[in-house]
Design goal:
The chain has about 325 residues and is α/β, with parallel strands linked by helices. The protein has helices at about 10-25, 40-55, 70-80, 90-100, 105-130, 140-145, 165, 180-190, 195, 215-235, 285-300, and strands spanning about 30-35, 55-65, 85-90, 130-135, 170, 240-255, 260-270, 280, 300-305. It binds xanthosine-5'-monophosphate. Xanthosine-5'-monophosphate binds next to α6.
């Protein structure tokens, strides 16, 4: 049973000091690795790990081909400014190969987990001689996995999987007692810029969590283009999270006076404190019109745009 530290109880300075000591103790005089995705959790772990281990922490960004537009360059440049070198490792071919032909949500998540931890990370860790992987699992990830709602890509022990046995390295999870609101506080206290600690959450399986049905480079590119529009138009709403989802259904539309049997994007925008429950944000019709207009204009093949109005539960934040 993991003991939650609520945002109200959290004493950032003490938490950081404790975790720094624990990381130093676990890693000893060896080295550790962490994978930075640019999300709040992995960015916070990167800062914490560097405070504890300095140059003995190697930070990599795995380019899985499923990230948002320009993400790896942006994140690497931002951490460079903070004095942290990030190595970008291109593994997009491996991820697309693993996802090929899979439409089932849990099978997709499993394919990503295996590719990430077994293949790509297994290799990087072996080459580096590190024995520890530092990662930003948070309590909400554990809850949903244990409850059997979604297999979060980064949860093992609670499922009875020993990472040492399965992958050959230990996983350290310094944020596991926290939820998103507390992680933001810790990130801020560690010196992350607001642009990073205020960032909306982004899932480990990245844009593949936003493609219903089979994941191909083309379908990822479609949802990536729609994501650019959605993030630009909704960034000032103050919402907890917002996203574009590509549906599998085809819908009849028309373009240039001709029938166009096109595709459909669903927009979701959530109000939430910690992702456990969430309600759709009450957006104005003016924003809906902009979203629809710019998505059909900028994303090839889209003829229909919808907005999700169901709450979590029974909905979930991501569609996969
Ligand atoms: P759901 O879709 O379960 O999402 O309502 C709850 C929150 O978690 C994020 N999410 C993930 N984060 N690995 C992660 O690190 C995952 O596999 C994953 N799946 C969902 C989601 O974006 C939301 O903020």
């Amino acid at each position: 049973m993991i003991k939650e530290i609520t945002a109200r109880e959290l004493n950032s300075e003490r938490f950081i000091n404790d975790k720094v000591k624990q990381i130093q103790h676990a890693v000893g005089d060896g080295m550790a690795i962490n994978a930075l995705s640019g999300g709040v959790d992995s960015s916070t772990v990167t800062m914490l790990g560097h405070r504890a281990l300095g140059k003995r922490l190697k930070t990599v960004f795995i380019e899985n081909g499923l990230m948002r537009e320009g993400e790896s360059e942006h994140v690497a440049a931002l951490f460079q400014k903070l004095g942290i070198f990030v190595e970008v490792i291109d593994a997009h071919k491996e991820f697309f190969a693993a996802l090929k032909g899979i439409a089932d949500p849990e099978e997709k998540r499993e394919a990503i987990t295996q590719t990430f931890y077994q293949n790509v990370f297994g290799r990087i860790i072996k080459e580096s001689g590190a024995k520890h992987l530092l990662q930003g699992t948070i309590l909400t990830d554990v809850d949903e996995t244990v409850a059997g709602i979604k297999r979060q890509h980064n949860v093992f022990e609670q499922l009875g999987i020993d990472p040492q046995e399965a992958f050959g390295y230990r996983i350290l999870e310094p944020l596991i007692q926290l939820r998103k609101d507390s992680v933001r506080k810790i990130g801020k206290a560690l010196g992350l810029p607001a642009e990073m600690f205020e960032r909306i959450p982004f899932p480990g399986p990245a844009l593949s969590a936003r493609v219903i049905g089979k994941v191909t480079p083309e379908r990822i590119e479609t949802v990536r283009k729609a994501t650019i529009v959605v993030e630009r138009l909704l960034k000032d709403t103050g919402a907890f999270q917002y996203m574009a989802i590509l549906h599998e259904d085809r819908v009849t539309g028309m373009r240039d006076g001709k029938r166009d049997f096109g595709q459909q994007i669903e927009v979701r925008c959530w109000d939430s404190v910690d992702a456990r429950i969430a309600t759709p944000t009450q957006l104005s019709f003016e924003i809906f019109e902009k979203l629809a207009g710019e998505i059909v204009r900028d994303v090839p093949g889209i003829v229909s745009v919808t907005y999700n109005i169901a709450q979590k539960p029974p909905s979930t934040i991501e569609a996969v």
